[in-house]
Design a protein that fits this description.
With about 160 residues, the chain is mainly alpha-helical. About 65% of the residues lie in helices and about 5% in strands. The chain is built from 9 helices and 2 strands. A hairpin with a 4-residue loop joins strand 1 and strand 2.
C-alpha cells in the first residue's frame, strides 16, 4: 500500500520539468526520424537525424532522453505462467560481484595478519605508489631489505588466499 502511495506522489508531484526548447527539439527529432525512415526505407542513425535538424548528435540524444518516460525496475520484461523476469534482473554490476567482495574480504584478512612493518611497506609500495628506494629512505633501511620484506609479505598474503 505504501509503495503505491509513493508512486502516486512521485507521479503527481514530479518537480523535474523538461525545458520547452528541449521538448520541442525532441519532437522535431521524432518527426525527422519518421521523414528519414520513409526516405531511406530503414531506421535512420542518430547522426542522420542530427544532420537533418542541423544540431549535434548529443543534443538529439539528450532531447529524446528528456521526453522518454521513466520505467520501473520492477517492470516485467518477460512473463510466462510460472516466472516473470524484470528489468532489475537484467541489471548487473560487473565490478561488484559476490566473487569480488569475497576476494576483497580475503585480501583484507590476509593483510591484517601481517606485522606492522610489512603492512607499512606494502601500503607505501602499492597504495602510495612509492619505489623500494623511496620506501627504504623513508623508514631508514636498505632497498634490499625493503625488497626482502615486501617479497615475504606478498608470499604470506598469497598463502592465506
Amino acid at each position: 500500500m505504501i509503495l503505491g502511495e509513493m508512486r502516486r506522489y512521485v507521479r503527481d508531484n514530479n518537480s523535474i520539468r523538461v525545458p520547452r526548447s528541449l521538448r520541442d527539439l525532441a519532437y522535431k527529432a521524432l518527426q525527422a526520424k519518421e521523414k528519414l525512415s520513409a526516405q531511406l526505407l530503414r531506421e535512420p542513425k542518430l547522426e542522420e537525424i542530427a544532420k537533418e535538424l542541423s544540431v549535434g548528435k548529443s543534443e538529439v540524444i539528450n532531447a529524446l532522453d528528456a521526453i522518454s518516460d521513466p520505467v520501473s525496475l520492477y517492470e516485467p520484461v518477460y512473463s510466462d505462467s510460472a516466472d516473470s523476469f524484470y528489468i532489475m534482473d537484467q541489471i548487473r554490476d560487473a565490478s561488484n560481484t559476490d566473487e569480488s567482495w569475497i576476494n576483497t574480504i580475503a585480501l583484507k584478512e590476509a593483510i591484517a595478519k601481517l606485522d606492522k612493518r610489512e603492512k607499512n611497506i606494502l601500503a607505501m609500495r602499492f597504495f602510495r605508489g612509492k619505489t623500494q628506494t623511496e620506501v627504504a629512505k623513508e623508514i631508514g633501511i636498505s632497498q634490499a631489505q625493503v625488497s626482502r620484506i615486501e617479497k615475504t609479505a606478498l608470499e604470506k598474503v598469497r598463502n592465506k588466499l
